[in-house]
From TrEMBL:
Belongs to the mitochondrion-specific ribosomal protein mL53 family. This is Large ribosomal subunit protein mL53. GO terms for cellular component: mitochondrial large ribosomal subunit. It comes from Aedes albopictus (Asian tiger mosquito). The keyword Electron transport does not apply.
Length: 146
């Protein structure tokens, strides 16, 4: 009997590496404010709290330092939710004022994937500069001074 080929040359790094990969892709430039609401006594609030911890990491905050991160701890048996309020330019592009995730039955990895899919995709594209020019390239491409 032979063993079936799985189709990959290497194994997955696991859930921790998948979360790390999604964290590298997060871009909050299209977001003005993030509000995370959860009830700490519910068992399905753990992934939402972990997502909040990942959003408050220095690398994620560095993508948009002017983005406000607010956490609301409630005690009324509400399901956890995450609300992203968009900047005016992103609102015009997406025709939405806010994006809301009901995170009751989602894992931390799924929350990060949804954030990258719906929020990071609205971030303005960075303009790539042409690079540095040497003095000879500047002289060849520029006008002569007299």
């Amino acid at each position: 009997m032979s063993i079936k080929v799985g189709g990959t040359f290497s194994r997955s790094g696991g859930i921790v590496s998948a979360i790390g990969k999604q964290l590298k892709l997060i871009n909050l430039k299209a977001v003005q404010r993030i509000t995370v609401t959860f009830d700490p006594f519910q068992e399905n609030a753990v992934p939402t709290r972990e997502f909040l911890q990942h959003l408050s990491s220095p690398r994620t905050v560095q993508s948009n330092p002017s983005c406000l991160l607010k956490s609301e701890v409630v005690c009324d048996r509400r399901s956890p939710s995450i609300v992203f309020q968009l900047t005016p330019t992103a609102q015009a592009e997406a025709k939405l004022k806010k994006i809301e995730f009901n995170s009751a039955n989602l894992s931390t990895l799924e929350l990060l994937q949804l954030c990258n899919k719906h929020v990071s995709s609205l971030a303005p594209k960075e303009i790539v500069s042409s690079g540095l020019k040497t003095k000879s390239e500047k002289k060849a491409g520029g006008t002569k001074r007299r």
